[in-house]
Amino acid sequence: MTTGAISAGAIAGALLRFWLQRWLNISALTPLGTLLANLSGAFLLGLVLPLISSTAHPNWFALLTAGFCGSFTTFSALTMELFEMARVQAWTRAALYSFGTLGLGLICFIGGYYLGTWLSGKA
User: Fold this and answer.
1) Which residues of the chain fall short of a pLDDT of 70?
2) How far apart, in whole angstroms, are the C-alpha atoms of residue 31 and residue 101?
3) Which secondary structure element, helix H or strand E, spans residue 92, and what is its range?
4) For residue 74, which of 49, 41, 28 has the smallest C-alpha distance?
5) Residue 96 CB coordination number (10 Å)
6) Distance CA 19, CA 80 (A)
7) Can you give the pLDDT at residue 71?
8) What's the rounded Cα separation, in Å, for the pair 96 and 100?
9) What b/e string do you get for 76-93 counting C-beta neighbours within 10 Å, with b at 16 or more?
10) Of all residues in the chain, what percent carry a pLDDT higher than 70?
11) R_g (Cα) of the chain, nearest Å
């Protein structure tokens, strides 16, 4: 049952990321869709953890965290895009993208976590 829940979430997350990348990635050097997927996925994971980690059925938790957020966010696309930036020697862009993704991702996760904690009444 948990495997099915993770699979369903993964399908939804991967499809949404695919469409975001097709819609917003101007080029390998301007991956706005990937950035949006990674940042919003980090925020969503932070939000979900305090809201449902102790109250939701484990299958729903697995669907949203490992399934949806796990496939919606993408380390492989990030590394491919960074490689392309390095290949064409767009070093400043690569540095901004990598540090921006990690730094902003952490900020998004923390913001989601604190919002989820506040919404759940655990603050």
Assistant:
1) none
2) 11
3) helix 91-120
4) 41
5) 12
6) 18
7) 96
8) 5
9) ebbeebbeebeeeebeeb
10) 100
11) 16
